[in-house]
Amino acid sequence: MVELGNVLILTSDEDFRWQATRGPVGRECRAKVLRESGEAVLSVLEDDIDVVVLDADGKELKSLITTVRIIEKCRPRIPVVLVTSNKSILNGAEILKENIFYFVIKPANPEELGEVVFRAIKKKHHLEKI
């Protein structure tokens, strides 16, 4: 099997972890799952990450904004997909919208998540060719 890319999944939600790694993302990509924002930032700096899937549930808005901004500053071509069951975070996260490739509402359909991640990988690879 040829892997499509390297996906970093930041979540503390075991159900979402299971969905994300058992669906198309887990089957067709190399998925690395972490729980802590600091670990995720280090992974973005050290590893060849193509897409970050950031689970916003259980995280403070300030922490999310900081994590997304650090990723964008360090690796501006890495798309970030934000996943949440809290629709109000989308209203409160106006500042994030310019830095987020796509928003997914939980419960996330594994097929939809896979489609979004694959599009994000294609976008990143296209930007790298420019």
Structure in words:
- By secondary structure, the protein is of the alpha/beta class.
- The protein has six helices and five strands, in the order βααβαβαβαβα.
- β3, α4 and β4 form a beta-alpha-beta unit.
- α3 runs parallel beside α4.
- It is globular.
Largest sheet: 5 strands, parallel
Give the beta-strand count. Answer: 5
CATH fold group: Rossmann fold
Q: Which descriptor suits the 3D outline?
A: globular
Indicate the percent of residues in helices.
40-55%
**In what order do the strands lie side by side in the largest sheet?**
2-1-3-4-5
Order of helices and strands: EHHEHEHEHEH
- The N- to C-terminal Cα distance equals 28 Å
- Beta content comes to 15-25%
Mean pLDDT: 86
Structural class: alpha/beta
Number of helices: 6
Low-confidence runs of at least 5 consecutive residues? none
CATH superfamily: Response regulator
Number of domains: 1
In short:
By secondary structure, the chain is α/β, with parallel strands linked by helices.
